[in-house]
Specification:
Layout lengths: L6 E5 L3 H13 L3 E5 L2 H11 L3 E5 L7 H9 L8 E6 L4 H8 L3 E4 L4 H13 L11 E5 L3 H13 L3 E5 L5 H8 L3 E5 L7 H9 L9 E5 L3 H5 L3 H17 L4 E5 L2 H12 L2 E6 L3 H13 L2 E6 L2 H11 L3 E4 L8 H10 L8 E5 L4 H10 L3 E4 L4 H15 L1
Parallel strand pairs: 1-2, 1-3, 3-4, 4-5, 6-7, 6-8, 8-9, 9-10, 11-12, 11-13, 13-14, 14-15
Helix pairs in contact: 2-3, 8-10
């Protein structure tokens, strides 16, 4: 797993808001520095070398756009990530184009702020994506939970755990998991009650909640498995009735990852685009949806990556140096190893002849820049669904 730089620099001219952001971040354990303007923030960044800069769009003396361009042009700022805060939602498009990692509209809630920071810091660097997932594990026995943690973290997941039912809600609110894996029989607060509460909360309405059964050594020694399994089936049924996504059955280490893997990653996507800003936007949007993402800056690098990974999907720009997207598409569709992989073209070229040429060469879809991420993701899902 890629080691994170958990140092955050906050730049905002509003002293009250800046203090609030700093408090939220320190409460999560991050090392936090602050500045009231962009010029001072640039100097502070050079001193503290942050992994993330949270900056107001209209920061005094040096605004967010100027700061980001200047910092990325420096030796120390090339790998820094940026979250921009703005009272104007319309500024999102501008910052998407220059390639920021996150954008939040003011006023921002603590939950939204924390989620965005964690998403950005947990996201892999461009070209090394892991389809990162936060998984909350809930169970009565620590040996079982720790076994699950080891397996999940070996897959690049970030995990946390709870051993008592009455702590699940508060932990979930702070940790903001993408997936919850819960034992069907929590004692101090029933699992079905926990699920009922979670499904009433907007941030947890749609996330996968997976239920598993676990038998402790004492239960195995007393030969009570048939009776216990019967009881477990009732617990599982009540959990499913309250909104659990799926039952994994009895926890077995050798089968666990096979059961949960479909929830960890939806598939592998290779992006071939020489525009780093576009690649960043695509990577972040796709990884949020659970895809494992890799990026190449030219057709040669893209071809090598595709042949090595054999991804589920290819997103391909048309206008690239040396070998353009049409030529790469033609090569891919002639190669027996890659001809079955669906390709979505993503380009500024919007003439009917351009679109027809791509479709004739075998592209499954053609998306014109600039694009809306929500619509792009839906079209990706449709292409992958049709390819099954």
């Amino acid at each position: 797993m890629v080691e994170q730089n958990n140092t955050v620099l906050v730049i905002d001219g509003d002293d009250v808001l800046r203090a609030q952001y700093v408090a939220w971040l320190r409460g999560l354990g991050y090392t936090v520095h602050e500045s009231s303007n962009g010029e001072d923030g640039m100097c502070r960044a050079q001193e503290v070398l942050p992994g993330l800069v949270v900056v107001d769009a209209l920061a005094p003396k040096l605004d967010a756009g100027q700061l980001i361009k200047k910092m990325r042009g420096s030796a120390f700022g090339k790998d820094v990530r940026f979250i921009v805060l703005s009272v104007r939602e319309k500024m999102r498009e501008y910052f998407d184009l220059i390639g920021v990692d996150g954008f939040l509209e003011k006023p921002v809630s603590q939950d939204a702020f924390v989620r965005e920071v964690r998403d950005v810091l947990n996201c892999s660097p461009l070209g090394r994506g892991q389809g990162y997932k936060r998984v909350l594990l809930v169970g009565r026995f620590e040996e079982c939970i720790q076994s699950m943690r080891q397996e999940l973290e070996a897959q690049g997941c970030h995990t946390d755990f709870v051993l008592f039912g009455d702590q699940v809600i508060s932990k979930a609110v702070m940790f903001l998991p993408n997936i919850i894996i819960m034992e069907s029989r929590m004692l101090d607060m029933s699992s079905n009650s926990i699920i009922r509460i979670l499904r009433q909360m907007p941030q947890f309405k749609k996330i996968p909640i997976l239920i598993f059964n676990y038998f402790h050594e004492s239960e195995l020694e007393n030969n009570r498995i048939p009776q216990e399994e019967l009881a477990m089936s009732l617990y599982v049924r009540t959990c499913l009735d309250e909104g659990a996504t799926e039952s994994l059955g009895r926890y077995e280490p050798q089968k666990f990852l096979e059961m949960v893997n479909k929830y960890l990653k939806k598939g592998t996507v290779v992006i071939v685009d020489d525009d780093e800003g576009t690649a960043r936007i695509l990577r972040r949007g796709l990884e949020r949806e659970g895809y494992q993402v890799f990026a190449a800056r030219d057709s040669k690098g893209g071809m090598d990556m595709i042949q090595r990974l054999l991804p589920s999907l290819i997103v391909l720009d048309v206008v690239m140096p040396q070998i353009d997207g049409y030529q790469l598409l033609e090569t891919l569709k002639k190669d027996a190893r890659s001809r079955h992989i669906p390709v979505v073209m993503l380009t500024v070229k919007q003439e009917e002849a351009d679109i027809q040429r791509a479709l004739d060469l075998g592209a499954e879809d053609y998306v014109i820049k600039p694009f809306y991420m929500a619509l792009f993701l839906r079209r990706i899902q449709n292409v992958l669904r049709a390819a099954k």
